[in-house]
Amino acid sequence: MKSIMSIVVVFLMYTLQANAQKEIPNVSVKKLDGSSLNMDEITKTKGVKVISFWATWCVPCINELDAISEVYDDWIDETNVELIAIATDDARTKKRVKPLINGKGWEYKILLDENQELQRSLNITVIPHVIVIKDGKIVWRHTGYQMGAEEELYEVVKKNAK
User: Fold this and answer.
1) Phi and psi (nearest 5°) for 65?
2) Domain residue spans in the chain?
C-alpha cells in the first residue's frame, strides 16, 4: 500500500510541475507614482529578470532584498540582470512601501500588486517568493529566505544569462 501511495505522490508532483505556469500573466500592477503598468511591458523583453514578491511586514522578504542589494551592482555588471520587487501590501499597509524603500536605498524597480491579482494568478501563497524569467519564460521559482539563499539565486541568474 505504501508503494502505491508513493507512486501516486510522485505522479502528482510530476503532473504539477509539468503543468506549472511558464509565463507571467499580463496583469496590471502599479508604479510608485500610481500609474499602471502591464507585466508584458516588463517580461516580454529579452534577458534575465528576477521578480521578488515581498511586503513591508515580511521580515524575511526585507532581509532577502537587503542581502541582494549589497551585491546587486555586481550582478548587473556580470549578467545584466534586472530585479523587480513587487510589493503585495494591501490598502492598509501600502503607505509604508515608499518610506521603507527610501530608507533602504534599494536600486530595484519597485511595483505594487495592491489587490494581489498577480500574486494570485501565479498561485503564490507564501512570501518571499522569487521568480527568475528568461526571455519572458519562467525558468526558476523559490519560496522563503534563509541567509545565503541569494548565492543560489545568483547561480541561477548566471546560468540563464549566458
Assistant:
1) -65, -35
2) 24-161
Q: What residues are paired with 130 via a beta bridge? A: 52, 142
Query: Rounded CA gap, 157 and 11, in Å?
Result: 29
- Torsion over CA: 83, 150, 102, 60 (sign): positive
Check pLDDT > 70 for residue 4. Answer: no
The neighbouring-strand residues paired with 38 are: 28
pLDDT, tens digit, for every residue of 71-93? 999 999 999 999 999 999 998 99
Under DSSP, is residue 115 helix (H, G, I), strand (E, B) or coil?
A: coil
Instruction: Report the alpha-carbon distance of residue 102 to residue 122 in Å, rounded.
Output: 28
Please provide the CATH number assigned to the domain covering 24-161: 3.40.30.10
d(CA 102, CA 85): 14
And the C-alpha cell for 80? 545584466
**Grid cell in block for residue 114:** 495592491
